[in-house]
Records
---
Amino acid sequence: MSRVLIADKLETAGIELLAAAGVEVDNRPGLKGDELKAAIRAADAVICRSQPKLTAEFFDEPGKCRAVARAGVGVDNIDVPAATRKGVVVMNTPGGNTVSAAEHTIALLLALARRIPVADATMKAGGWDRNKFVGTEVAGKTLGVVGLGRIGREVARRAKAMDMRVIALDPFVTAAKAAELGYETAANLDEMLPKVDFLTLHVPLGQDTKSLIGARELGLMKKTARVLNVARGGIVDEAALAAALAAGTIAGAGVDVFTAEPIVADNPLLKAPNIVLTPHLGASTLEAQENVAIEAAQLIADFLLKGQVANAVNMAAVNPAELAQVRPYVDLARRLGLLQAQIAQGAVRKASLTYRGELAGQKTRLLTAAFTAGLLEYRLSDGVNLVNAELLARERGIEIAESSSPKKGDFAALLHTEVETEQGTTVAAGTLFGDQYVRLVQLGPFRMEGYLDGVLLVFRHRDVPGLIGFVGTIFGTHKVNIAQMTVGRQAPGGEAIGILNLDGPPPEQAIAEVKAHPQISAVTVVKLPAAGELPTWLG
Ligand SMILES: NC(=O)C1=CN([C@@H]2O[C@H](COP(=O)(O)OP(=O)(O)OC[C@H]3O[C@@H](n4cnc5c(N)ncnc54)[C@H](O)[C@@H]3O)[C@@H](O)[C@H]2O)C=CC1
Ligand SMILES: O=C(O)C(=O)COP(=O)(O)O
């Protein structure tokens, strides 16, 4: 009989579903340390929410555990790469708590605007003050929504119903799509922040979003503005927010999520003025908990009893033998996607892939999925993989088109990609040398032979003598080694593009010095995996 550890508080509907399916349920929420480790090892699968921190050590020796289901969205409390390495499938249940998280955000917004918690507390302490708690209407005010995914969209829709003006910021939402929904867009945070009366964050916690709102960003906002964080602790810097509230440079905040949960006594937000706090209650409604408990239990029952995998954030349902054959091209396609994600400016509308020569008609769906996974993987909270990449792109209104042409050009096989955003189209094409070495052979209109790994410095320039030496000297001075370099140009003395492969990330100062050259028009730093480093879904 299969055994499932329930490592968090889970609605009984989920537990009943497992029992009815003939699975043994070990319902022990709140286990920690060695006890949790032992319970995981003894189970075939685990169901959790955000409380247990399933760090790498829990997957070191997973015993018989083969799957973790997160009854909710954010998997930031689970070390997914560590789980993957050990072959543990991690699944989640996006969508089930979307409405609850959105409603909680609106509840905090109104509680702040009308100062309800403090008025309530004052009254219960014997007070009656109708002058001290004068609030503000939200109608006519501007709400900035950062992250217009599932929850952000529901928040924006509700704000619109309250006659708020909505400005959205999300790399996967074009101005046209936003306008269709009745929202404005901002090109970046700096443009959005000075305009908003309320700011709400609905992005996953990741490298890009940690401290997304810090002292500098809070400083760009109106003194009368209020900040809401129902996403994840740390997306808004806690110390900076507490300081801005104390200084009165921000008028209020509503926070549901914290860097350490349960909150620690010295968290500066506990003592900050004009703040409404809730203990991670965004998904805590009967409805949401029933949804996610049933969904998570069903995922685990199907996995254990039928071998079926759905909603996996770290696993591709691709036949292993097939994958082995095309692995180097899958790697190339993903790297081109990662490159395009970092060089394309503005919200992505469409990606068009053309398979030329020997690649024509060869598992192109798989390669297109790999390219799409690369294009999306920096931004989304769900782990993007071969299985879900195209669906996730479609959900975000990104069209993915592919075509094949068996005619051979300069290369026996070529993958040509074009990414269209509201600001233009970027072209990148790649191939394999010697059936295994991944190479970039075209960027924009320029032909070249570039390496698609590590840190790349891409610079557009005019092909004038001495320029390459100028750039090389800058990196030499800053002690950043240049491992490779390639230049593509159409004609001597004309427009050109240079790519340097650097042995480490370049300091800001070095980039500023490169940009200062009058013949260099644009500089972009692109971060790609090291050569041979494969994504977890391909490893
Ligand atoms: N307080 C609570 O109880 C709950 C909190 N959450 C949190 O909310 C987050 C969002 O959930 P969903 O809306 O379901 O996820 P989602 O994946 O549907 O939406 C996330 C959106 O953020 C956008 N995004 C990513 N990086 C961005 C950036 N740097 N700037 C602007 N936009 C960016 C993505 O393009 C995507 O559209 C989850 O990751 C989770 O951490 C989710 C449920 C309940
Ligand atoms: O689904 C999410 O990401 C949440 O933050 C909800 O967390 P919880 O399940 O209530 O611990």
---
Amino acid sequence: MASAREAAIARRSSPKVTDAAPEDAQLLELLGAAGRVADHASLAPWRVIALRGAARERLGAALVEAAQVSGEAAAKLRSKPLRAPLLVALVATVTPGHPKVPEWEQEAVAAGVGHLLSLLLDEAGWGVMWRTGPHTRHPAVAAMHGLADDERLLGWLYVGGRIESGKPGRPAELGGSRFSTLS
Ligand SMILES: Cc1cc2nc3c(=O)[nH]c(=O)nc-3n(C[C@H](O)[C@H](O)[C@H](O)COP(=O)(O)O)c2cc1C
């Protein structure tokens, strides 16, 4: 098993994947670990929804409704969710007006779960790519997922069988101005 550091350095996004996908049981196991991110007041302000099969077609239809396009543009948009056999929708379940934990902190926790889940899926050998787009928070897209009023979509992890690209990932070294020390 890779160390957390080794897994982070090895991780890279997979824009193209095969039709293989992890079962719900494996997703649940990995989510148990991903849900261990730091979480102010332990609100667990997140949930995920696995979209498989025809649910991806319903998402495509919701994207077209959101974009108000037709013809070729609609066909292109409708097919986007079909690029992977499994889409893991990442949802921030925000408690508004919490006395200690503002909304941005709750979204940060949900995003942390998304990043850690993406890392764990990558480490388990799956191809993963986090995708969003201009319609991620459109009401039609929220309705397709059955989101409640205080739930916000953070995008989808597109997951499938990994195709080795042979291309190197981004370098792990930090350049320039991303680190400084105050003392
Ligand atoms: C919140 C979020 C949304 C993203 N949305 C998209 C997207 O819609 N389209 C895309 O090509 N990449 C998107 N990305 C970036 C890719 O997932 C990926 O991280 C990037 O291409 C860098 O490649 P790497 O992860 O292999 O270093 C998104 C990443 C994050 C964290």
